[in-house]
Amino acid sequence: MKAFTIVDQSTGTLRPNEMPAPPAPAEDQVQLELIGTSINPIDPLVAKGYGAPLLDRKRQGPLIPGRDAVARIVEVGKGVTGLRPGQRVLVAASPRTGGTYAALFNLPRKCVAPIADTLSDATAAGLGYAGLTALQALAAAGLSADNARGRRLCINGASGGVGSIALVLARRWGATLTAVASERNQDWVRRLGADQTVDYRDPAAMAAIDADIILNFATPSDGHRQHDPLLDDLLRRAPTGGAYVTTSTPVLGAVTDKGVLRGLGTSGGIYLKKRLAAHRAGIRYRWVLFKEDEEKLAYLARVFADPDTPTVVSASQPLDALPEAFNDPKGPPSPGKGVFMVEAP
């Protein structure tokens, strides 16, 4: 079976490889045939051992990365309901589960959701992991389709995969949106529905952002040891119903450096300190750690099957181009999502 694997975690280099086909799916698992996949920023990091004490305790190689995909069901395990062989599905797996960079792979039932014919393979290939993260960040901020209309929301890192999907969802729900992105990606975030755009390199424009809710998908890696201007400003203004949610947390870095117990203790202390400071200002403060969720995955599939929903896919390439993009030190293709398809586009 063709797969793309990491043999040496010291380099994290992705290479094509021949691997044994997976066994028949176990109870509550499905076996899937890959149609297309994408790269998430966490994938190259995990390939180099980032978060391994939590995500890859056995450390057995070769590692097959991959968090999301569009795939076709080959076989369902005992106890699986609502799915059948031949059905197309949207896939999103945690870094602990993973393994979508293979012709065939097995995943738990909670990692997949059936999709309509109107959802294209290319859109589905890049939607799962980033889309669930975006939905979970919006929920952590207290936002939903029922209450987001008219709320003033700023999305930092709005042109990335998670930020792009969050923009589309928040626009659909009626929020007023400020998108923070580089100058070259301003047109991209406007197309996705931003009311206002800000270049993150412009300190005056950043300081002038007046939003009740901040979703931060672009904090620097050392952001937990330095002041975050967006958070600092939100705490100063303390708007009623204010919230700050970030996907950039020190959890995986801390457990990588210090081991599971000390790492979780260190990151937990940071979280409690920041959350307490925010609570004193009347601000909801949350970290988002990805969680598999078949119901939210099915919601994403319905939203992006709507022909009026803008695509977040900026590039589609043959699957054989995956290693070059994965190994590129500049990171995954952007803006939005770049996808890699078994059948060349």
Overall description:
With 345 residues, this protein is α/β, with parallel strands linked by helices. It has 2 domains: 2-127 and 312-341, Medium-chain alcohol dehydrogenases, catalytic domain (Quinone Oxidoreductase, Chain A, domain 1), CATH 3.90.180.10; 133-287, Rossmann fold. It is 31% helix and 23% strand. The protein has 12 helices and 15 strands. The protein has helices at residues 42-47, 52-55, 121-125, 128-140, 161-173, 186-191, 203-207, 229-237, 251-258, 260-280, 294-305, 322-326; strands at 2-6, 14-18, 29-38, 68-76, 88-92, 104-108, 112-114, 152-156, 176-181, 196-199, 213-216, 243-246, 284-287, 313-318, 337-341. Strands 3, 4, 5, 6, 7, 14 and 15 form a 7-stranded mixed sheet that branches. Strands 10-9-8-11-12-13 form a 6-stranded parallel sheet, with helices on both faces. A two-stranded antiparallel sheet has the order 1-2.
How are the SSEs ordered, and which strands pair?
Blueprint: E1 2-6, E2 14-18, E3 29-38, H1 42-47, H2 52-55, E4 68-76, E5 88-92, E6 104-108, E7 112-114, H3 121-125, H4 128-140, E8 152-156, H5 161-173, E9 176-181, H6 186-191, E10 196-199, H7 203-207, E11 213-216, H8 229-237, E12 243-246, H9 251-258, H10 260-280, E13 284-287, H11 294-305, E14 313-318, H12 322-326, E15 337-341
Parallel strand pairs: 8-9, 8-11, 9-10, 11-12, 12-13, 14-15
Antiparallel strand pairs: 1-2, 3-4, 3-6, 3-15, 4-5, 5-7
